[in-house]
Amino acid sequence: MMSDLTERQRLILALIVRDYTETAQPVGSARLVEHYKLDLSTATVRNEMVALTETGYLRQPHTSAGRVPTEEGYRYFVTHVVYQADLPDTARHTISHQFYQARQDVEQWMPLAASILAHQSKAASLVTAPHAERSRYKHLELISTQGRQVLMVLVMTGGEVSQQLLTLAEPVLQERLSAAAITLNTICTARTTEEIAALPVRSDALEKDILTLVLADMNRGEQRVSGEIYLDGLTNVLSEPEFLESGDARRAIHLFEERSLLQDLLARAMPNGVGGVQVLIGGEGKWEELKQCSVVLARYGIPGQATGMLGVFGPMRMAYSRTIPTVRFMADLLSSLVSETISGEENEQ
Amino acid sequence: MMSDLTERQRLILALIVRDYTETAQPVGSARLVEHYKLDLSTATVRNEMVALTETGYLRQPHTSAGRVPTEEGYRYFVTHVVYQADLPDTARHTISHQFYQARQDVEQWMPLAASILAHQSKAASLVTAPHAERSRYKHLELISTQGRQVLMVLVMTGGEVSQQLLTLAEPVLQERLSAAAITLNTICTARTTEEIAALPVRSDALEKDILTLVLADMNRGEQRVSGEIYLDGLTNVLSEPEFLESGDARRAIHLFEERSLLQDLLARAMPNGVGGVQVLIGGEGKWEELKQCSVVLARYGIPGQATGMLGVFGPMRMAYSRTIPTVRFMADLLSSLVSETISGEENEQ
DNA sequence: ATTTAGCACTCTCGGCACGAGAGTGCTAAA
DNA sequence: TTTAGCACTCTCGTGCCGAGAGTGCTAAAT
Description:
2 copies of one chain form a homodimer. Chain A is of the alpha+beta class.
């Protein structure tokens, strides 16, 4: 693998990737030598470029232009050059600091993560809220609003909260609702959907109806592939030249706005548990819309219990050497946040 | 006002606006006559065009191009031609139907509203969740997650729910937390921030600390200008020619992604209570970024209690005759949803 | 008093040729 | 193995030209 290329070829490939990601212009031999102070002549560089072109890592847009990395070129760069790179300490500190300041505001965590990712990578970012495949009932609250309208707030272990508005057949007093909530809380707390479904049917009509809705809601939660999706930094990506012309790239943005498509992408791209950082370059042949784009994805959280995803989306020509370490670091950070928050099933009371 | 223009001039202006919004091409006299089967010669139309150009409602991009509406032209069109127009029944039914299907899922209301607006107007939409300037305490819930970590869920009248994660000095059992929550609920329910602040200080340390956080949270809520912001349909607007070239338009999109800027825009554009539909054409000289764009805004909700905003954003050349009635209808619809949900202060228990 | 036909005029836009410049690949020398 | 030298190729900006679109004006028609 590694010996596929000589040390010097790797250097030249890396420099071309770097220069191209910055300028979006094909890179010529002369520019490479003078701009990066190589102790080589342009001719030598050109010879190496020919080799790299034959191996399939570079290509020429046309006869007399400089070289541009191919998808394979980017992939080589990602796997052999920057994949193990660490995020500089200054960046780690900045990020940790921002999260420290927002540590109380659970609702801010996801948008904050998206915002940081977008700023650091200068591309578009997405973060999904942590989501459990099988979560347990934690607490139910019934709040009478007006007449027959009741707001039902359901909290799950793991901190997921869902609201639902229901209309009863006839008006019910708040006292009655509170009593029902207390009863249901007693019998349901810490139970899974299946366990609740297996309970004997309630004799009280109100409790029975509510329980049906609770079950429906829990089921709906388990059907979902991911938690809520947070996006940021779309404008970063809009000013990139790739997105100004070819409608291809614009269709990719559509993929990101349409939540259902995005869910599908995430599900297919990251089937397995928490692991390393996934880099999808040019859609990898599977996504027509992502032909000119790249996505850097990672899963965070605690595998059996609650996980979410985060990622960065940008032109194929993205700053991988910055983005990949950032995504990895943020995934670790969110993982630790989740494990601090989550109600473990062992020490549950 | 009305007599500013003759009937025929109004017709021609309206047709030019309509044609231009559809094609994005300057409209010539010949096209106008044959395409809309006018019983006039092109020369007559041209004479009227000269008049409209002199009044400032039309302009020519260059000598031998057709006419394009000016900002004043659009404004005349909006105020005198389409402002009172009603949304066709079929559209009303489609929209009502979609809301009917989602009536239980409170969390879906806002994104659904944004999605419908975006589809109907074929532009970008924004909706802010209803937000009360002065809301009242409704219910507090304290949930132990792990060791010293506690998830605090605070529900306000009007249905706003906020979550906060707090770390206590020492671990506390769930029983203790529930007891504290019940005590606080008893003394705080239905009270405003000021009223709660005026209560005698709690002797219990835990209750005192929690109450401080509750107050901080309520204050933070009251500081905010609006509820959460939901966006949709940005991609609709991206494919418009205006946004492909001039960076101006792209900067406008940035305005929409940066929540703080957007808050400012909303606050300055819609200072007063629920009223008619506001149409901002070309930024009205106040927003440099919106020079080529228009925004159609409306406030919904119940003035003294909880209000939110909704709007549509697109190129100045937008389909006002469709957008304005849609925004008005949606504002009414959301208003009725809010008044069904909200806990009135009178019939509060 | 309007409306309309006719016409000259102006400006944009696409196509085309052309030269400058960038960057290459190859060969032959170091 | 590296490098200097050079011929070659292709893009891109510029300027020119003609076609076409749309106008404004004038004079005739209603």
